[in-house]
Amino acid sequence: MNLIRAQITPHLLLxxxxxxxxxxxxxxxxxxxxxxxxxxxxxAKKASAGTDRVILRVGNLQVxxxxxxxxxxxxxxxxxxxxxxxxxxxxxxxxxxxxxxSVLMLSQQAVASHLDSSPEVSRQLxxxxxxxxxxAEFASLMRQATPAWEEISQYYSAHLADYDELHVRRxxxxxxxxxxxxxxxxxxxxxxxxADQILKAYASGTDVQKLSENxxxxxxxxxxxxxxxxxxxxxxxxVEKAAFVLKEGEWSExxxxxxxxxxxxxxxxxxxQLGQVSERIEKNLQGKKMQALLDDLKKKAGIWMDEQYFGTxxxxxxxxxxxxxxxxxxxxxxxKKGGNNEDERQK
Length: 347
Hints:
Elements: H1 2-8, H2 12-25, E1 54-58, E2 61-64, H3 65-72, H4 83-112, H5 119-145, H6 149-158, E3 164-174, H7 188-203, H8 208-218, E4 221-223, E5 228-231, H9 237-243, E6 251-256, E7 260-271, H10 274-301, H11 307-310, H12 330-336, H13 342-346
Antiparallel strand pairs: 1-2, 3-4, 3-5, 3-7, 6-7
């Protein structure tokens, strides 16, 4: 019951706008409206005289079943299949009807009090109307911009390298074991000697899970117990460049910083299939098409903006998908995948 109240509250203002507008347009002795559309919700289970039958009255205003269903469809809870759920749904519907009647009553009173002609309410109604129309046109353009499957397939074939994947295992050797400035620092040569011992144990067939745990307990570094998967662009440029020239099973040192050495093994090279990336490609192509449609509309609309007032920065297209200019580091990505990183080690 409380759920229905919670659901309808965010929509109360919008409903007031809709109803207030309809009340202002309808005469006091208006006849029931015959809006098209049919209900797909629970009350349809009962025998009905038709969607144009009046199911609610507030003063002289009458609401048909079709009108009520269409206006509350998006905020109404879905009905269940058994009798208990049907009974609960009926109670929820009663609450919805009561809430809707209250909205109608208040909007009628607002019109009777001429609040709809007050500057503030008129401004809000105008803004609400403009927003609804803007959203409707934006949705229409988005549908026009939806790429066909052939376009998605062609884009994939032309950008195959973008969907390469690397399955990588990493070995970190710490050269400084804590954040203290006075902490002893292991030389690169000594760190490499430690790495050589670990990699020899790895190559000899030592259980990777056990070896990884031993490395962690020693405090000398971190070895991934499982290979991590990285798409192109997710690794840092330096690491990615080295990784893509490795052969499967090869190790390479890719980083030497004051705090650590980083070695990677290319476990497997792979490529995401079209079915895996089709949604991403579709959004990318749709965004580009949408941008082109909006740019064309702006030219035809003859938009002019005072640069002295607004500045010269170009506003982003609403809903456009943009990829960040700086790809996440391999440590950030491994953290997302549940791996431990250096920051976690130093806490």
